Fold this protein.
Amino acid sequence: MRAKKKGKMANRGKAVSAAPTVTPSGKPREALRPGWVLARYPEERADLIAVALGKQPADLVIKGAKVYNPYVGEFHLGDLAVSNGRVAGLGSYEGAIEIEADGAYLLPGFIDSHVHIESSMASPLEFAKCVSAYGTTTVVADPHEIANVSGLDGVKWFLRATENLPINVFVMVPSCVPATSLESGAGSIATYEINRLLREPRVLGLAEMMNFPGVLFGNLEVLAKLNHAPLVDGHAPDLTGPALAAYIGAGITTDHECILPEQAAERLSLGQNVLLRQGTAAKNLLDLLPAVTPMNSRFCQLATDDRHAQELNMGGSINYLVALALRASDVSKETILNMATINAAEHYGLADLGALTPGKIADMALYPDLYDFKPTKVWKAGQLVAENGHSIFSEPAVDDSALRNSVKLPYLAEADLAIRATGSKIRVIGVVPGQIVTENLVLEVPAVKGNYAADPEKDLAKLVVWYRYRDRIIPPAKGFIWGLGLRRGALASTVSHDSHNLVAAGINDGDIIVCARELERLGGGLALALNGQILASLALPLGGLMSDRSVAEIAASLDNLRMKGAELGFSELFDPFMTLAFMSLPVIPSLKLTAEGLVDVEAFDYVPVVFDEESH
């Protein structure tokens, strides 16, 4: 693939930044704005018309490419012309910059329909650099994580931090901060604040409505949040029948929590879009593909939800989902490509995105084949932002000082972690491999010196959650977890959905305390301890959720944590931190531990650790 540069546009092949540029009419324009707000001055429309008619050269021409058209599900061989960041036409064109595609595949930029950028553990800037290099040029983000840490200020920071990036970042306003009354975080967003945020230019609607009990019970405060949102994303695992109909009827338009094809099929039949998710903890894509049919596929989209830096660094984002789906299913490549592009654009009202047809924003990527889906070049609004798997985007990060130093723990003593034995059976959180749902187990656990104790031979570890913010100090919540795979030592994290309190699991209380102290010192992050010493850690100083380093550097630290985790008994194929992160989420069945105590999600109430047989 050879590039030819001609005349005035020769500089566009270089690394780009958000420095102002000038339109043909002499008006200033910021270079990398979200596609849907890219200005269309009359002079620019005139330019595009002239380019399309062959009366003047294009700014950029990708010559001899197989261009995918999602409207008809076909590839067309020809030259794609770009004028002022938009597609002018497909045919035979000349331009100031000409890229010889040599028959490579030119696809619209992929769209991630639902992602928590904070879950990558990278800042929005570093996340964008990484995913753009793999062909994802648009994401619909839910800043729910930073909102739980910093409230409205966290969302405002997120909007600033995603304003000028090599990808379009659209935002769904967090709907449940806190997610329920059964957990406590430092952040909260009231209904009137949601309404204000809905007026922000890049905000599309209301993010996943996790409080489905509140919807079904007709809670007026919950329903008020739905009133002004043009779109509402859903989060309703296990709902079916009349309950699902009621939830959808309240105005919730998507769901990404399906784990079975029957669940997806039911939602699609009721008019709800289904986001097929493949994240780091929840991997549901292949299980759901059998529900996709030629008739309903246009209501299906792809999403990563929560994807760690390691997987982003190694395989990318939506491109990985596309490749996985094509290799492991009989669903046509055209259907898969549409789920990664035009379907999401149409559902979220992004009329300028999702295709490479005249007038659309020229967000696109060039692929040598349709197997690995690793692009050689990626453009955003016609400007080159990545090449051969590497970002060439340059932009300073926004001020993040307000997000730092967010971890404040009480005095830590092993005696505070004791759970007094007052019966022979206790409730235990049961890990379900590859899922974020858990089992509600009742197990017999012998007492040691009058207290319940972890038993590594039975894969039983103690679980502790500390409220970690500065506004108040409360005692740690304690319980047990089965199936984590921990055989010795302890691990801890401040990435703990949704309130992101400090969660730790361990075989002995001393190592749990060591991990907690290390995370307070780092200002948040991940840590492993054994025999009173820290084995490895990763600092996440931005709200206890994100690093300010590159995705590759974060991935290297995570690789080290995984390698060191083998000393605690973990398989290198298992990510204990991602699993641990969901053990405090009381909107996912069945049993969870928040900073306030043990929660039976089905009963939507606290329950004691000790199981009283007489009451059952």
